[in-house]
Specification:
With 130 residues, this protein is mainly beta.
Length: 130
């Protein structure tokens, strides 16, 4: 069962592939200066929208060591849930990897990783909504 799609990269329910997802959004607010009063703020639009994905890959069973490296080409990718909800177009801001259970010539049997994504305008982005 597919839980999340990032372009061609699939996070599934098989094993412990997807272990967490965090969404963060900010609003752009502009203060309206008033004399001797608390400045009210006005919403001027959505701010940055970020998502962090925590996951695990077992290279010997799930497509080899190059999977994470394949994501580092700088192009936007559509992010969607397994039930068809499109979250928008995102670029990878950073990837943190932790390679475990090294065998033989240093090949990991398990890679825990976190991908930080930032929303960018694109064909599936709509008008700034999630």
């Amino acid at each position: 069962m597919i839980l999340l799609l990032l372009g061609e990269f699939t996070f599934s329910a098989r094993g412990d592939n997807l272990t967490g997802l965090t969404r963060k959004s900010k609003a752009r607010l502009s203060p309206q200066e008033l004399i001797q009063r608390i400045a009210p703020v006005q919403f001027v639009g959505p701010g940055p929208r970020t998502i962090s994905i925590d996951a695990v890959i077992r290279p010997e069973y799930q497509g080899g060591l190059g999977q994470i490296d394949d994501l580092h080409d700088g192009r936007p990718r559509m992010l969607a849930t397994g039930y068809g909800h499109i979250l928008g177009d995102f670029k990878i801001e950073s990837v943190d990897e932790k390679r475990k259970y090294l065998s033989g010539p240093g090949i990991p049997r398990k890679i825990e990783f976190k991908i930080d994504l930032i929303r960018v305008p694109g064909p599936s982005s709509g008008f700034g909504l999630w």
